[in-house]
From TrEMBL, chain A:
Protein name: Fe-S cluster assembly ATPase SufC
One Pfam family it belongs to: ABC_tran
UniProt-listed SMART domains: AAA
Record keywords, A-Z: ATP-binding, Nucleotide-binding
SUPFAM superfamilies documented for this protein: P-loop containing nucleoside triphosphate hydrolases
Keyword Nucleotide-binding: yes
Keyword Nucleotide-binding: yes
Similarity-based family: Belongs to the ABC transporter superfamily. Ycf16 family.
Family annotation (InterPro entries): AAA+_ATPase (IPR003593), ABC_transporter-like_ATP-bd (IPR003439), ABC_transporter-like_CS (IPR017871), FeS-cluster_ATPase_SufC (IPR010230), P-loop_NTPase (IPR027417)
Source taxon at top rank: Bacteria
Every ABC transporter domain range: 4-246
TrEMBL record, chain B:
Domain of life: Bacteria
InterPro entries (alphabetical): Fe-S_cluster_assembly_SufBD, SUF_FeS_clus_asmbl_SufBD_core, SUF_FeS_clus_asmbl_SufBD_sf, SUF_FeS_clus_asmbl_SufD, SufBD_N
Protein name: Fe-S cluster assembly protein SufD
Every SUF system FeS cluster assembly SufBD core domain range: 177-409
Pfam families: SUFBD_core (PF01458), SufBD_N (PF19295)
Length: 260, 435
């Protein structure tokens, strides 16, 4: 079993504190969902875990199986087993999806141990078929001109090919039609199991109908303010966030006051 | 103001060069005439690059003798790398100033296609040469360098595609430059008659580091009504030249001239690329990529001038600049009066890899007609950190991520080149140059 621990994480962007002490522990064989209103720091958490250069961790820890993630470069974090499906994946003109994926897979291998082209193609074809992606997509330039839904599918394709220990999925369900949502969920469920832990950021129960989470966390104002099981998400879907705010005495004006 | 310049050869030397080559008298006169003009005319004035002090004139030798290749087996490795010796049916190899190898399929010969070195063309295809050689696309007296070129032409190729002849497989030309003393006054004259089609790919290769000669290349592509020409080139000449490279297109009604140029020469170079869309519905898709390095000074001036109604001009220029390279990317879409419904688009992007490098993208639209569409995009910047982050988040090292982004940035031309070996060679040159 592998564990990803986030301890009292504080993160700033451009000098503004966004995360104000996040605590979270994820094990393999677990699926966690993070929900919360817009702008409460969910993507910030994901970016800080992956090491986005714009996000500055001012205090706290991220530990992956006893190793200090914060000391690692972005590529080292990926090699250590972390994967982030981004809310807004980048477009890389001129680099084909297939070439990129092969580089990503080979980056994890020793020199001379690169995946054979045949094996790679076989695996790619199989995974793309599983995700119902047209074959020509592998020769398209990475995310260039992809629709919102195609980009999300492509993120899952990458995750399935790279096989990380922990997948962090930032709004993987946004902008997906119902068929695409089913396919993407199928991909995530396929990964589910002993060697894989997952943190899904979402606004919608809809995704969780396909992938039942083991744990649900609510983020507000840069903190995890409430955790529970799958039933917590259902209650949020039905009632919104007001009851949590009331329960915890959180005022909507907090952020505004800070800025004033 | 005109300044008389001392040229590297006298008029008499030009005359005897022509006579020694058994050129027709008319061509000797043409050269002599051009040499006289070269003495008087000014240098061109590429926008934003001052070349007054550049020495395009002096050289030790006008022509050097090189041994031809008796068979394909004799080709040096550098040439073998770009030529598929088994499959390539139509091939011309020039070694410095010497036509060193030529192969033309029976099929093309039977169809009346001419694919021969320029010296032979000057002698054996007098009428065609007289009709097209610096008469239609490029004029002798545009400036000192066009005149100098006309006077001193010492290599190049003539391609003539008769009416309705469609050549499926690309014609390949390799200019091998393995003598540092050589000067290349190459002239490429490609005439595609009505409703013909041809793809032409040339490669310039230097096998040494430091050159001591001059490069003054003029290319004329003439596409008659409804003809289609695809022109690919990879220039990879050594450091030390002061190069003038002019590639020009002349497209008549319904004609198409597409360019895919990988401009990797290591010398200071003035690149002039003009395509004149004369006829209605004529089109040109111009793509170039370049990597500037060392102390190179580069000017890429690309102009598509559109007279034709409903004509379409597309310019794409991508450059990577490192070390202390300085570059100007002038892109001009010019729609002339009468060119209704014409469309002119251009995109110039420069990636800067080091502090000391300079790159200026200078997009210009000149529109003399109301009913047209036009657009331009230009940017100069560094490798996008968000792209690097994305790639690195998949486990790819920073170095490899940069490499991928740069190759991707230069891919538009690589992807267009129709000969596998040339494509591969360009990729390798890019690899070497950006490292
Ligand atoms: N460059 C920046 N400068 C200042 N504030 C920023 C900057 N980038 C992000 N923020 C702020 O950080 C806060 C958290 O953003 P984040 O993207 O983490 O929210 P989120 O919870 O993912 O929201 P959503 O549900 O809308 O995706 C927001 O208030 C946002 O405006
Ligand atoms: Mg977000």
């Amino acid at each position: 079993m592998a564990t990803l621990e986030i301890k009292d994480l504080h993160v700033e962007i451009d000098g503004k504190e966004i995360l104000k002490g996040v605590n979270l522990t994820i094990n393999t064989n677990e699926i966690h969902a993070i929900m919360g209103p817009n702008g409460t720091g969910k993507s910030t958490l994901a970016s800080a875990i992956m090491g986005h250069p714009k996000y500055e961790v001012t205090s706290g820890e991220i530990i992956l199986d006893g190793e200090n993630v914060l000391e690692m470069e972005v590529d080292e974090r990926a090699q250590a087993g972390l994967f982030l499906a981004m809310q807004y994946p980048s477009e890389i003109p001129g680099v084909t999806n297939a070439d990129f994926l092969r580089s990503a897979i080979n980056a994890r291998r020793e020199e001379g141990q690169e995946i054979s082209l045949m094996k790679f193609i076989r695996e790619l074809d199989k995974t793309m078929e599983f995700l119902e992606m047209p074959e020509e997509m592998s020769q398209r330039y990475l995310n260039e001109g992809f629709s919102g839904g195609e980009k999300k599918r492509n993120e899952i394709l990458q995750m399935m090919m790279i096989k990380p220990t922990f997948g962090i999925l930032d709004e993987i369900d946004s902008g997906l039609d119902i068929d695409a949502l089913k396919v993407v969920s199928k991909g995530i469920n396929e990964m589910r199991g002993e060697g894989f832990g997952c943190l899904m950021i979402t606004h919608y129960q809809r995704l969780l109908n396909y992938i039942t989470p083991d744990h649900v966390h609510v983020m507000m104002q840069g903190k995890v303010v409430k955790s529970g099981g799958a039933e917590l998400a259902q209650r949020l879907e039905a009632e919104g966030y007001e009851w949590i705010k009331a329960e915890l005495g959180i005022q909507d004006t907090d952020v505004v006051t800070e800025e004033a | 103001m005109t300044v008389e310049t001392k040229l590297a050869l006298s008029v008499e030397e030009v005359r005897s060069f022509s006579q020694n080559n058994a050129e027709p008298a008319a061509f000797t006169d043409f050269r002599v005439n051009a040499m006289e003009k070269a003495a008087e005319l000014d240098l061109p004035k590429p926008d934003r690059t001052n070349i007054k002090k550049w020495n395009f004139i002096d050289f030790a030798n006008h022509t050097v003798e090189s041994a031809p290749f008796a068979s394909l087996e004799e080709l040096p490795e550098e040439v073998k790398a770009v030529v598929d010796t088994e499959k390539q049916e139509n091939l011309y190899i020039q070694r410095n100033n010497t036509p060193a190898f030529v192969k033309v399929s029976e099929e093309l010969k039977n169809k009346g296609v001419i694919f021969t070195d320029i010296q032979t063309a000057i002698r054996d295809h007098k009428d065609l040469v007289e009709k097209y050689f610096m008469t239609t696309a490029v004029k002798v007296d545009e400036h000192k360098l066009t005149a100098y070129h006309a006077a001193l032409v010492n290599g190049g190729i003539f391609v003539y595609v008769p009416r309705n002849v469609v050549i499926e497989e690309p014609l390949q030309v390799v200019f091998l430059n393995d003598n540092a003393e050589a000067s290349l006054f190459n002239h490429v004259l490609l005439v595609a008659e009505e409703s013909s089609a041809v793809t032409y790919v040339e490669t310039y290769i230097s096998t040494f580091e430091e050159a001591k000669g001059q490069v003054n290349v003029v290319t004329e592509v003439i596409a008659k009504d409804n003809a289609q020409v695809t022109f690919g080139a990879v220039d990879n000449l050594a450091h030390g030249y002061t190069a003038y490279v002019n590639r020009r297109g002349h497209a008549q009604r319904d004609a198409k001239i597409d360019w895919a140029l990988g401009l990797m020469t290591n010398s200071d170079t003035i690149y002039e690329n003009t395509t004149n869309l004369i006829g209605d519905n004529s089109t040109s898709d111009f793509k170039m990529v370049t990597v500037g390095s060392g102390d190179q000074k580069l000017n890429f001036t690309t102009l598509i001038r559109q007279w034709g109604k409903n004509s379409d001009g597309q310019i794409l220029k991508h450059g990577v600049m490192k070390d202390k390279a300085q570059s100007i990317f002038n892109g001009i879409g010019h729609i002339m009066h009468g060119g209704t419904k014409a469309n002119a688009e251009q995109e110039s992007r420069v990636l800067m890899l080091s502090e000391g490098a300079r790159g200026d993208a200078n997009p210009i639209l000149l529109i003399d007609e109301d009913d047209v569409t036009a657009g331009h995009a230009a940017s100069v910047g560094r490798v996008d950190p968000t792209q690097l982050y994305y790639l690195m988040s998949r486990g790819i090292s920073k170095q490899e991520a940069e490499r991928l982004v740069i190759h991707g940035f230069l891919a538009p031309v690589v992807a267009q080149l129709p000969i596998e070996g040339v494509k591969k060679q360009l990729t390798e040159v890019i690899e070497r140059k950006v490292r």
